[in-house]
Amino acid sequence: METDGRKAVRAMILGRVQGVWYRGWTVQTATAFGLSGWVRNRADGTVEALFAGPAGTVDRMLAACRRGPPAAVVTDIVVEPAPDPGDRPFEQRATV
Fold first, then answer.
1. According to its UniProt record, which residues of this chain constitute the active site (predicted)?
2. What is the tens place of the pLDDT at every residue in 23-39?
3. Which of 6, 16, 23, 40 is catalytic?
4. Using CB atoms within 10 A of its CB, is residue 30 exposed (0-12), middle (13-18) or buried (19+)?
5. Which is deepest, 47, 70, 85, 92, by most CB within 10 Å?
6. Is 41 noted as a catalytic residue in this protein?
């Protein structure tokens, strides 16, 4: 969802994205970009993330997620609008 120039999206990242430091890379990259949100592994082998911040920065993060860390092989990213979690540090969450 976009409000006041902010954008919040939920992204499901598919491919070889577990066991390749994808979550750690996501935390580092999103933090460097100044984004709010979280990232977690899912039992189905995907990685799920919520990114919130300035619309252009969220779009840059999504583009970076298409590459991911060096050992990752991203085959697709499914993105949908999400509620904005507000301005809080980006975090890694437990697997669901």
1. 23, 41
2. 999 999 999 999 999 99
3. 23
4. buried
5. 47
6. yes
Please tell me the CATH code under which domain 19-79 is placed.
3.30.70.100
What is this structure's pTM? Answer: 0.94
23 is catalytic: yes
For residue 79, what are its two tokens?
A: 């993105």
Hey, where are the domains in the chain? 19-79
Paired sense of beta strands 91-92 and 36-41, if any: parallel
User: Token pair for residue 43?
Assistant: 């039992």
> CA nearest 77: which of 35, 42, 49?
49
Query: Exactly one of 10, 40, 41, 93 is catalytic; which is it?
Result: 41
Cα distances from 2 to residues 5, 19, 23, 28, 40, in angstroms, run 6, 32, 25, 24, 23
The whole-angstrom distance between residue 89's C-alpha and the CA centroid of its chain comes to 13
